[in-house]
Design brief:
This protein is mainly α. It folds into 2 domains: 6-88, no CATH class; 93-267, Hypothetical protein af1432, CATH 1.10.3210.10. The protein has helices at residues 13-22, 29-36, 40-50, 53-56, 64-82, 99-119, 125-134, 137-145, 147-160, 164-172, 176-186, 191-199, 211-226, 240-246, 251-267; strands at residues 9-11, 85-87. Strands 1-2 form a two-stranded parallel sheet. α1 (13-22) packs antiparallel against α2 (29-36), α6 (99-119) packs across α13 (211-226) and α8 crosses α9 (147-160). 48% of the residues are buried.
């Protein structure tokens, strides 16, 4: 059973900056939110607290901006002091990718999903940004529980150009989507985010109430891959064409998102590992 306490927060430069921001008396919530958008592990803790009975009053909190408004600076500051933290250098050896690359991909998916939501005129811009940021935390957890199996799955996916999630089931006995679904449910996150965690690689089977948030997360992953920002080179996402058709976005429109995504990441101060664009 994967529970919230299993998610230890990386003591990364991004988290250190967030803690500095939280110490400021004269602050704006936008500053806190901007820093949170680089800390997917701590963002999960913030969302879990915002959705707890103490704060949510049974109203699902699906967006980080609403969580920040609801909790306020002092509560988030206190949470940042209380959560279990782990030095960055103690974790990178477990995963096929570094934490920096994990954050870059997560932010790319979050940004891409929100760009697509806006272009498709789906009123889930901030929800998709939040979902994209945390959707792959199951991968991080799986990397610490079965690093050997995950590395074998990773190598097999890259060698065959097929889905990582399928190889994870073979080598690990589970996959990062199942881990995320269990984790998000245990953390008390809304059903919408829990479904994204579990079905972001199979979005078309998501329940009708949550299918568009799941589709947007998948579309964000497609866009990140087109921009050369997906960490595992396992081939073109199988559902990419169907997903963009469902969103009523043609090829010219989706191709135009790639430089836009890279521009947005540059504004955020992120330098992509891969500077050459994938073929669009």
């Amino acid at each position: 059973m994967h529970v919230l306490k299993d998610v230890k927060v990386r003591h990364s430069p991004w988290f250190e900056y967030l803690q500095q921001v939280l110490e400021l008396e004269d602050f704006g919530s936008d500053l806190i939110l901007g820093a949170l958008n680089f800390t997917p592990d701590f963002a999960l803790h913030v969302l879990a607290l915002a959705n707890s009975p103490t704060f949510s009053a049974n109203t699902p909190i699906e967006r980080l901006d609403r969580a920040v408004f609801l909790l306020g600076r002092k509560t988030i500051r206190d949470l940042s002091r209380e959560v279990d933290k782990i030095p960055l250098e103690e974790t990178d050896g477990f995963s096929p990718i570094s934490w920096n690359d994990f954050v870059l991909e997560s932010v790319a998916v979050a940004t891409g999903a929100s760009l697509i939501a806006r272009a498709a005129q789906i009123p889930l811009v901030e929800e998709s940004r939040t979902a994209g940021l945390i959707h792959d935390l199951g991968f991080d957890l799986l990397s610490r529980y079965d690093s050997v199996g995950l590395r074998q799955a990773w190598d097999a996916a890259e060698e065959t150009g097929t889905r990582l999630v399928d190889h994870e089931r073979l080598f690990c006995g589970t996959d990062h989507c199942s881990v995320a679904e269990e984790l998000f449910a245990a953390a008390g996150l809304p059903d919408s985010l829990t479904v994204v965690g579990g079905l972001h690689h199979d979005p078309l089977v998501a329940p009708a109430d949550h299918i568009y948030l799941t589709i947007l997360t998948y579309a964000g992953e497609c866009l990140a891959q087109r921009a050369g920002l997906q960490n595992c080179n396992s081939g073109k996402p199988a559902l990419e064409d169907r997903i963009f058709e469902e969103l009523r976005l043609d090829e010219n429109t989706t191709s135009s998102f790639v430089p836009l995504l890279l521009s947005e990441l540059e504004k955020l101060g992120l330098s992509p590992r891969c500077t050459s664009l994938a073929k669009v």
